[in-house]
Amino acid sequence: MNPSTLIAPPALVRRAEQQDTKAIQALDSAHFIHPFTDHGDLATRGSRVITRADNIYIWDSEGNKILDAMSGLWCVNAGYGRKELADAAYQQMMTLPFYNSFFQTTNVPAVQLATKLASLAPKIGGRSFEHVFFSSSGSESNDTNVRMVRRYWDLLGQPQRKVIISRHNAYHGSTMAGASLGGMSGMHAQGDLPIPNITHIEQPYFLENALPGESRADFGRRAAGWLEAKILEIGADKVAAFIAEPLQGAGGVIIPPETYWPEIQRIVDQYGVLLISDEVICAFGRLGHWFAYEKFGYRPDLVTFAKGVTSGYIPLGGVMVGDRVAKVLIEQGGEFNHGYTYSGHPVACAVALANLELMERENLVGRVRDDTGPYLAERFAELNHHPLVAEAETCGFVAGLVLVKNKATKEMFDPDLGVGMICRGHCFRNGLIMRAVGDRMIISPPLVMTRAQIDEMMALIRRCLDATLDDLRTAGQLA
Ligand code: PXG
Description:
Strand order of the largest sheet: 4-10-9-8-7-5-6
Shape: globular
Number of helices: 17
Strand content: 15-25%
CATH topology of the largest domain: Aspartate Aminotransferase, domain 2
Number of strands: 16
Largest sheet: 7 strands, mixed
Helix content: 40-55%
Bound molecules: 3-[O-phosphonopyridoxyl]--amino-benzoic acid
Distance between the termini: 52 Å
Radius of gyration: 23 Å
C-alpha cells in the first residue's frame, strides 16, 4: 500500500472516515511506535483510527460518532473545530512561522502570551507570577522545574538543597525527570528511575489510605503530615521542593480532602521548601478557575502548565515563575543555561492567545465554575445510587468514580477481572470515551459542553455501567 493513497486531500477531509481502516492499521502497526502501548497487542487488534472531530464529538474511520468525555487527553478545553484557533495558526505561520527566543531575541506572540498569563494568574498572599518560561509540553516544563529549583538553591548558597518530594501515583510526564517526579511504579520499573534526589510520599487517596472510621478531614491532615515526616527524615536543609498536582488526574481523579492543601501550605512555609503546582491538567478552566491553586487556596512558587493553554490544538507548555524564584534567577543568576528550540514558539503562542481570548469571550471558566460544573456535580452524584458505584464525585469539569463489588464495605473486585476495562469496552461500543484507571472510571469533558450534552453523556455513562453490571452478574461475580 502506497502511504500517499491514504492521505486525504483537503477537499475530502469531511469524508475521512471512509478511509481504508485495515490499510491504515497495517501501516500504523508497521511503522508507528505509540506512547504507552503494547505493540504486540496493537498488531493483533489494530488501532482505532480517529479521523475528525467537532465540538465534543470525534469520528473514527468506520464512521462511528463518539462523545469525547476526555477532551482528547484532558486538553481540548475549547472543544474541537474552533476556526479561530486554525486562523490564528495560519496568520502567524504566514507572518513569522518560527524564530528562536535565544540570544536576546523575542517575538510578539510570545511576549503577548507571557503578559496575558501573568495577568490571569491570581495573586494569593502577596505572591504574584510576573514571569513565564515556555516549553512545548508538560514533561519539558517539569524538567525545567527541576533545573530551576536546583539553580535557585545554588544561587542562594544552599546547593545541598537538592531533594524534590513528590507522591506515589502522581503523573508529571514521561521524560527522565518527569517520570522520576511521577509516582507510577510501572514507569520507574523501566529505565532505572527515579533519578537521584527525587523521593515520594503516599497519595491523599481516601478510599485506599484512610484508617477505618477516619473522617475525610482528619485523613486530609494526616496525609499532608506525610510530607512533614519526609522533610524531617531527609533534613529540611536538604529539601528543595515539593511537587504535586492540585488533584491527581492520570492517577484516577483523586480529589484531596479540603484539609489537605492548607496543611501542605503550612508545612512548606515552615520549612522554606518551594512548592510546585503541576497544573498541566487542572489549569485553564478545568476546575472552574484559570489556575487551580486558586481553587484550593494555596500559594505555589512555580506552576507547570501545558495542554489546555492551547486547548491541545498545538503543543505548548511552560512554567509560571513566581516572584520568589524569579527575583533570584533574574537578579543573581546571570545566564540560566537552559532552553528549548521551541521555547516561545510564535505559532504555538498565537494559538494560545486565540484560545484564551475565545475562553474569555465565551466565559468558559465562569460557566464551569458557576453553571455547568455544579450541574455536572449534581448529575454525576446520582451515580452513587448505582449498584456498582462508590465515591462518584467531581471537581469542576473532572469526575471520577470507583467500581466496587460491595457498596457498603467498598470491597474492590479482584484486579485480574479488569472490571474497569470491561466498562471501558462498553463505553467504546456505545460511543463514549471514558477512561479506566484500574477500576476507577474518569472523565474530563470539553468545557464547551452544555447542560443538554451533560445529560446525553450521563445517559451513556449509565448505559455502560448497566452493561458492565449485567456482564458481572452473568459471570457470577455479583449477587
Ligand atoms: N503533568 C501532569 C499533571 C500531566 O497530567 C504531564 C505533566 C506531562 O505532560 P506532557 O505534555 O509531556 O504529556 C501530564 C500529562 C493519562 C495521561 O493517561 C495523562 C497525561 C499524559 C498522557 C496520558 O491520563 N498527562
